[in-house]
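Task: sequence design from structure.
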């Protein structure tokens, strides 16, 4: 998660919302990403999506079975859909997102009966650091 935080700081340096993500498989980081929607003019370029795309290319498979995704913020609905479709085994996130989080807050997609894959998840890892980075970013922009 500390590495994902460094990636989130990279996003912030580029004027993006500071969110970072990594995909780990067999105890090895196979992909990384940070928010890049503004820079790339791509509404799907969330940190998770970038990392998932990179991971798929790295292992030459869109199914990321037995992989863990670490991300600094609870994923949104778009990202949770992709996480489920990719068959991510485990999701670990830092800050909870009460307004838009789709794991356990605004939506509970981790346990949605209409999805054919269940993602094991843990939230709150380095929550204070992840939350502070986001809070400071938005405070500076107001």
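Answer:
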């Amino acid at each position: 998660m500390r590495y994902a935080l460094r990636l989130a700081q990279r996003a912030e340096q580029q004027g993006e919302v500071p969110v970072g993500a990594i995909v780990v498989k067999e105890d090895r980081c196979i992909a990384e990403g940070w928010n890049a929607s503004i820079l790339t003019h791509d509404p799907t370029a969330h940190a998770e999506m970038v990392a998932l795309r990179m991971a798929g290319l790295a292992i030459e498979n869109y199914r990321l079975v037995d992989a863990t995704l670490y991300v600094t913020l609870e994923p949104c609905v778009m990202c949770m859909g992709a996480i489920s479709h990719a068959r991510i085994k485990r999701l670990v996130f830092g800050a909870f997102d009460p307004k838009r989080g789709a794991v356990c807050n605004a939506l509970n997609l981790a346990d949605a009966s209409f999805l054919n894959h269940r993602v094991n998840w843990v939230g709150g890892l380095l929550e204070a650091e992840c939350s502070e980075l986001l809070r400071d970013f938005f405070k500076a922009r107001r």
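The mean pLDDT is 97.
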